[in-house]
Each structure stands twice: as structure tokens, then as C-alpha cells.
Here is the input.
Amino acid sequence: MADTEAVVVDSASKTEQNQDEILKAAQNEISQVMATAMGNLSDQTKGEEPSDFLNKQKDAVEDADYVEPMQDPYNKAITYLENHNILQLFQTLTAGIVYHKPEKPLEYMMLEVEKMKKEKATTK
Here is the structure.
């Protein structure tokens, strides 16, 4: 019994050591990347005042052409469906199918759409 407990404790300590090694390796890699990035930034700005570097960056941004942001396709689709009452139409058709349980649901939907079109035409 004591041997089994020793194996479990030994296994747990090895797992902790592995996790510590992985963590240290990740920290070292992050430190190296940050040092390289900061070195590159230092090389670009060598001999310049920080305000000069920032002014150059600001000028570059101001000189760039403005690009209209792209609208999220999902929100664009939802807006279209809402503006044309498509969501309400499908909700009404689905509720009717579930309630009436027609033998031919597609024909039922087509007839319901035709009824809606006629009702809309008579109310104009």
C-alpha cells in the first residue's frame, strides 16, 4: 500500500515539474519575442525623440486613404429580414404548420402566402 502511495505522489510531482517546465519555456519565449520587438522599435527610432516618432506615425495615419468599415454580414442579413417582415412571415407560417399539421406543408405555405398577398392587395 505504501508503494502505491509513493508512486502516486511521485507521478504528481513529475506532472507539476512538467507544468513548471512548460510555463518557464513559454515565459522565456515571450520574453525573447518582446525583446526582439522592442529592439526593432529601438532601431527604427534611434536618434529620434519619442515625440518625433509619434508625429511620423500620426502623419502616416492621416495620409492613409479612408476605407469605409464593412458591415457585419450577419447583422446586415438580420436588418434586411426585419425590414421586410420576413422573420414574422416565417414565424406565422411555421406556427400555422405546427397548429394545423397539413399533409402537404409546402402547398399549405404557398396557399397562406397567396392569402396574405390578396389581403395586402385589398387593404391598399
